[in-house]
Amino acid sequence: MKNYNILSIILLGTLFVNCGDTKKGENSLFTFDNSKFKEQYKPQETIDLGILNTNSKSIDSIIYYVNDKKIGSKKGIDKLTFELKDQKLGYQKLKALVYFEGQNSEATTRVELVSNIQPKLLKYTIINTYPHDIGSYTQGLEFYRDTLYEGTGQYGKSQLKKTDYKTGKVYKEIELDSKYFGEGITILNNKVYQLTWKENEGYVYNADTFKKEKTFTYFKPIEGWGLTNDGKNLYQSDGTEKIWILDPATLKELDYLNVYSFETKIKSINELEWINGKIYGNVYQKDAIAIINPKNGTVEAIINLTDLKKKITQLPDTDVLNGIAYNPKTKTIFVTGKNWDKMFEIKVSE
Question: What are the distances in angstroms from CA 340 to CA 118, 156, 168?
């Protein structure tokens, strides 16, 4: 079995490949010439854009767009070659605005851009094992000033707390109203941001006092899953393959990524952590961490942490791996899971 297949099984459980969708846009006059389109493209490739003029119209010019951004124009029906190297992964929406005989008409279609990188399988070493509250349904984990902050879930049990990571002693905690299911957290500019699952709202707290400073509504109707930041912007997962990039002041969308492991879209991206310029993400119900390039969504490496679950106390409500926290002081990663009684400090290597 190829290395790629093994890594995909770690992330997905089963191997599948999403085929590209090259369906034609509904248009009675012009359609894209997709006779040579492939099901999937990779960033090093180009695509030749052109339209079919089956009604023999006298075409003056065509303006081409990719994801609503103008990329060039051609006289007549000449094709335009477009390089895909700077595009984010995922479906590319193609549009041709055709000017003919004093009129204009649009043709649309889409193609799928996937990763050209086969992820590396990384090794890890357990440095220390610490206690973790077995009652905590971990949703978010992050270090701030050498103190561990944790957001937990479940209706009626959701909390935000900060602890001594070595002993598990709780310094401060607050509970969410029982109608809210807590999700991911992150800390930026001395503010703690916390998501909720299906309630379409989140909160901003003072990191020292836990005083709630703001309640915000999501920029669109999505679920709240994981949250991290790069020191400037927030990154939010929603249970799909998307990671949204948000303005921390307005909580509005700035951009987004689609996460791909080689040719396969990776859904259920969960708890997130920003480590040395990369996004480390739990994949829900998989005991593995995907290391994601934040520029394009490519999974560059995978850490298989399946063996950790054998080292914890097994109870009926013991759930999956979830919780990644990087401690810049020790330069190590701390991982735990939902209702795990242990937290592991690990070092990762190739």
Answer: 31, 19, 13
Tens-place pLDDT, residues 272-326: 999 999 999 999 888 899 999 999 999 999 999 989 988 999 877 667 899 999 9
pLDDT at 316: 75
In angstroms, rounded to a whole number, what is the distance separating the alpha carbons of residues 195 and 216? Answer: 9
Which residues have a Cβ under 8 Å from the Cβ of 281 and sit 6 or more positions away?
Answer: 226, 237, 243, 259, 269, 270, 271, 272, 273, 289, 290, 291, 292, 324
Phi (first) and psi of residue 4, to 5 degrees: -60, -45
Give 111-174 as a 3 state SS string.
EEECCCCCCEEEEEEEEEEEECCCCCCEEEEEEECCEEEEEECCCCCCEEEEECCCCCCEEEEE
Domains within the chain, CATH numbers bracketed: 19-113 (2.60.40.10), 120-349 (2.130.10.10)
> How crowded is the C-beta side of 224, counted as CA atoms within 13 Å?
32
Report the 10 Å Cβ neighbour count for 54.
Answer: 10
The pLDDT of residue 319 = 77
Quote the CA–CA distance of 36 and 159 in Å, as a whole number. Answer: 54
For 249-267, what is the mean pLDDT?
Answer: 94
Nearest to 64 by CA among 120, 106, 117: 106
All residues at 6 or more sequence positions from 249 whose CB lies less than 8 Å from its CB, including other chains: none
Please, is 149 exposed, middle or buried when counting C-beta atoms within 10 Å of its C-beta (0-12, 13-18, 19+)?
Answer: buried
Q: What is the mean pLDDT of residues 190-217?
A: 96
Residue 291, strand partner residues = 280, 301
CB atoms within 10 A of CB 104: 14
> What band does 14 get if pLDDT is binned at 50, 70 and 90?
very low
Mean pLDDT on 168-180? 94
